[in-house]
């Protein structure tokens, strides 16, 4: 196993969890549905815990959680696009808006689920040892929750869409407007750090790739 490649992948997975947590803050702050609000809060808290699990795993394997791999930067761009789509506004009914948010959650959770499935498969393929033990412990805690997140999002999206198609009144249609995140707004430099609650729409825009001394040491040792 290439330890450097694994640490790069874990950096990517950490970025995905970070952005997923941000998405839950956005959709949870504006839903009018009590069930959705409760689930977004529950899954958001679990996603926050998944970030911690990944940070601990990276450290166990001798990596630096503050290091941002090239694939993590790509994941960030994709996640920022998802967050931007969540900020679209226009003549949508409540049901249509809820469905759009649920669709974004489903897309994010599909990626999350695939990430943890990959770690599970990797753990099974590795010989017994420190790396396998660390991966198995992380997967055992997180993967069942990811299964639940994905299944719930798919089922709930279908239910909301069926409701909209069969009984919800159509809104008046006007010109679509768009919310734009100010590019000059302060951004988080390190994806592993929590985002301040004062700005739920803030996303983690990272500086040009730089390795810390700790990450260089870990990567050279691998």
Specify the oligomeric state.
single chain
Which CATH C-level class is it?
Answer: Mainly Alpha
What name does CATH use for the topology?
A: Ferritin
Order of helices and strands: HHHEHHEH
CATH superfamily grouping: Ferritin, core subunit, four-helix bundle
Number of domains: 1
User: How would you describe the shape?
Assistant: elongated
Strand residues, percent: under 5%
Q: What is the terminal separation in angstroms?
A: 10 Å
Largest sheet: 2 strands, antiparallel
Query: Level of helix content?
Result: 55-70%
Radius of gyration: 19 Å
H/I helix tally: 6
Structural class: mainly alpha
CATH architecture level-2 label: Up-down Bundle
Q: Provide the spatial order of strands within the biggest beta sheet.
A: 1-2
Give the low-confidence spans: 175-222
Average pLDDT taken over every residue: 80
Q: How many individual β-strands?
A: 2
3D structure, described in words:
With 222 residues, the chain is mostly helical. The chain has a single domain (3-166), classed as Up-down Bundle (Ferritin). The chain is built from six helices and two strands. The protein has a two-stranded antiparallel ribbon with strand order 1-2. Helix 1 runs parallel beside helix 3 (70-86), helix 1 (3-30) runs antiparallel to helix 4 and helix 4 (94-125) packs antiparallel against helix 5. It starts with a helix and ends with a helix. Mean pLDDT is 80; it is low at 175-222.
């Amino acid at each position: 196993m290439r330890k450097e490649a694994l640490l790069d992948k874990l950096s990517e997975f950490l970025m995905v969890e970070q952005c997923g947590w941000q998405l839950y803050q956005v959709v949870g702050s504006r839903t009018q549905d009590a069930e959705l609000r409760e689930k977004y809060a529950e899954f958001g808290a679990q996603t926050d815990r998944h970030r911690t699990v990944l940070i601990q795993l990276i450290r166990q394997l001798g990596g630096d959680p503050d290091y941002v791999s090239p694939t993590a930067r790509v994941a960030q761009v994709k996640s920022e696009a998802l967050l931007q789509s969540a900020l679209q506004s226009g003549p949508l009914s409540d049901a249509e808006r809820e469905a759009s948010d649920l669709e974004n959650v489903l897309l994010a959770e599909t990626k999350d689920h695939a990430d943890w499935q990959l770690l599970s498969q990797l753990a099974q393929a590795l010989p017994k040892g420190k790396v396998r033990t660390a991966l198995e412990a992380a997967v055992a805690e997180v993967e069942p929750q990811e299964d639940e997140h994905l299944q719930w999002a798919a089922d709930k999206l279908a239910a909301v869409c069926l409701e909209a198609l069969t009984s919800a009144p159509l809104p008046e249609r006007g010109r679509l407007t768009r919310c734009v995140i100010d590019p000059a707004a302060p951004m988080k430099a390190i994806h592993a750090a929590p985002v301040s609650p004062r700005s739920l729409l803030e996303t983690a825009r990272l500086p040009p790739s730089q390795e810390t001394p700790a990450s260089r040491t870990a990567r050279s040792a691998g």
